Amino acid sequence: MLYVSTVDLYKHQWNVVSSVSNLRKEGFDVQLTLVGSAYPQALDKLKATIEKVDTNKNFIKYEGSIDYVDLPSFYQQSDLFVFASTCENLPIILLEAMASQLPIACSSRPPIPEVLGDAGVYFDPENITSITNSLRRLLMSSKLRRTMAEKAKERANEFTWEQSANDTFQF
Hints:
The protein has about 170 residues and is of the alpha/beta class. About 50% of the residues lie in helices and about 15% in strands. The strands form 2 sheets. The protein has a 3-stranded parallel sheet, covered by helices on one side. α1 (about 15-25) runs parallel beside α2 (about 40-55), α1 packs across α6 (about 130-140) and α4 packs across α7. The mean pLDDT is about 95.
């Protein structure tokens, strides 16, 4: 699993880490990679959660900030994308994951559903059980993962610079 985003209080990476830990306890052999720069208070919270649930550093990896040119390889190496933000405008990172044709477990907070549409499985980013249930749902069904990945790619193709310019000029 991959979560790309700045580590900040409204991004809830520690809830995703706890959810992945829950899934490991259920017997799922899952790993989570977190990528993104961080604000100190949120990073402290994330590191404390990682230390609590993955003391041996077996299944959670925090990469920190990476060069943008290196990001596509992270998408390509991942089987599932997670995005747990509670506050966004137009989440470009989500569009990148969609364009990478990844199945997505995602926050249900607006405007994310307007961007992802029916191409993902939603959760309450402030509720670990909700996140765990959404991830489990995707993990349990290869058909659902495949369907969501295809829909995500199709949906991403609707977001073009040409369409954005046309909509802006029309407005």
